[in-house]
Structure formats: structure tokens, C-alpha cells
Amino acid sequence: MRAARKGDDEAYRRLLVLVAAWLRGVALRGLAAAGRPRADCEDVVQETLLAMHLKRDTWDETQPLQPWLRAIARHKLVDHLRRRGFTDHVDIDDHSDTLAAPEAAEEGSALDARQMLGRLPERQRRIVEGISIEGQSAREVGARLGLSEGAVRVTLHRALRTLAAVYRKDRT
């Protein structure tokens, strides 16, 4: 890509051949995950190659090429699925016997949330409760706990990351 951006037409041709082959795999996996036919693959590849060509000046040469290309491919796949009217639909009637009553689900969720919050260190728990449950701002929680707004935001981020990990671990 670096040589192609400097005007080397042969390098650009080789790049397009290599990228097209790689994109086919990316597009096929994305289409399969969305339950779409393999026949749509070439459309996604061509749209991605065109976008790559038009946006090649936005690539930062100090960065790897693949993440930049993958982002373009992901956006083109999403655009393609939207144009084709992709919707992810699960018929709830097929699973009605496994669903809990709404009251039980809400009670279970509140209990799960309290148990998960109880697994956090005190400061993290108080920050999550203040912002997420009580609706306070980071500035208000910081003033109450003697912390800067930035420290509250960092601690909140860490607490939420910890909660997500606990949730994933408990569900597996």
C-alpha cells in the first residue's frame, strides 16, 4: 500500500489481488454469520475494494493495514445487509416455555445485580451505585467521595469492566 500510494501501479495491482482474496474470506464469514447466501460475497468484496481505493489516503502509514481494511470491510458488510433488509428475528413462541414470568425475571435481575455489586471493592461499588443507580454525575460522586471527576470516571470504567467479567464468568 505504501508503494501504491507513491504511484507504483504494479504494487497496487498486487495489493488488490491479495486484498481481494483476503476480503472474500472476511465477507464469507460475515455473510454466513448473518445467514446470507455466499453469492453476496463478491458484492461486498467489490464495495470494500472501491471504498479502499477512494479512502486510501486516510490510511496512516505508521499503522498496520489489516485493521484499517477490516473496519472498511465490516462497514461495507453492514451496509450490504441493511440494503438487503437484514433483520435478526427469533420467534418468541418457540421459546415461551423457557421464559420466566416478568415479575420473577425482574426480581432475579435485581438480586443478580446486588450480588454482583457486592463483589466489587467498596469504592468501585459506591461509584457504580451513585452513577448508575442513583443517577448522580461523576462530579457529584467525586465530591461525595473526595475524588476528582476523572478519577471517578476511571474507577467507574474499571468497575464496569470487572462486572462484565464477573457476569461472563457466572454465565459460563
Summed over residues and divided by their number, the pLDDT gives a mean of 84
Query: What percentage of residues falls in helices of 4 or more residues?
Result: over 70%
The description of the largest β-sheet is:
none
User: H/E series, N to C?
Assistant: HHHHHHHH
C-alpha end-to-end distance: 43 Å
Strand content: under 5%
Describe the SSE topology.
Elements: H1 2-5, H2 9-33, H3 41-55, H4 65-83, H5 102-118, H6 122-133, H7 138-145, H8 149-171
Question: What features would you describe in this structure?
Answer:
InterPro entries: RNA_pol_sigma-70-like, RNA_pol_sigma-70_dom, RNA_pol_sigma70_r2, RNA_pol_sigma70_r4_t2. This is Sigma-70 family RNA polymerase sigma factor. Residues 15-85 form the RNA polymerase sigma-70 region domain. Residues 113-163 form the RNA polymerase sigma factor 70 region 4 type domain. It comes from Reyranella humidisoli. The protein is an all-alpha fold and 172 residues long. It has 8 helices and no strands. It has helices at residues 2-5, 9-33, 41-55, 65-83, 102-118, 122-133, 138-145, 149-171. The protein is elongated and about 65 Å long.
